[in-house]
Design brief:
The chain is α+β, with helices and mostly antiparallel strands. It has one domain. Helix content is 17%, strand content 50%. A 7-stranded antiparallel sheet has the order 2-1-7-6-5-4-3. The N and C termini lie far apart (35 Å).
Length: 157
């Protein structure tokens, strides 16, 4: 379950849409370093599961580096055969995107809402995002808050 939640948390950060064009957003294509923290907001689970989940997500920081050829690739979702997901991405401005995603699997459902804020097309470009994701299965319901910061670090190799 923890692996699934980890994948889903980062999936929430990287949603896709075929109508997004890099030129219409304040986004610089290239190599980005993205760091995120995950925090439990609420949890309803048996005590031993709750203890394990709280330990797993205790002010946890993840950092990854990835090459994005366009803003659409920044929002791209890895294909997952286990879940059926519906996404809605709403462009607020050239520097802000709101999103909502609901996924259903055999034993797990999730819902994610949040936004991505972009800051420029220069060598000092940055991004911030904040999401809330709720996961439910037969044993637990957990609501997570994910806060992420990205920075452009150069051209892709």
């Amino acid at each position: 379950m923890t692996g699934l939640i980890n994948k889903s948390v980062f999936t929430a950060l990287i949603l896709t849409s075929s109508h997004l064009h890099a030129d219409s957003y304040d986004f610089k294509s290239g190599l980005w370093e993205n760091s995120s923290t995950v925090e439990i907001i609420e949890i309803d689970a048996p005590p031993e599961v709750e203890k394990m989940m709280r330990s797993t997500f205790k002010k946890r920081m993840e950092t990854e580096t990835e090459c994005y050829k366009s803003f659409a690739s920044f929002l791209e979702l890895d294909a997952d055969q286990e879940f059926e997901c519906k996404r809605e991405i709403k462009r607020i401005s050239a520097s802000k995107v709101e999103l909502e995603e609901s996924c259903t699997g055999t034993d797990l459902t999730s819902k994610t809402v949040g936004e991505i804020n972009l800051n420029g097309k220069t060598s000092t470009s940055t991004s911030t995002s904040e999401f809330e994701t709720t996961f439910s299965d037969v044993l637990i319901k957990i609501k997570l808050k994910v806060v992420a910061n990205g920075k452009y670090i150069g051209a892709c190799n």
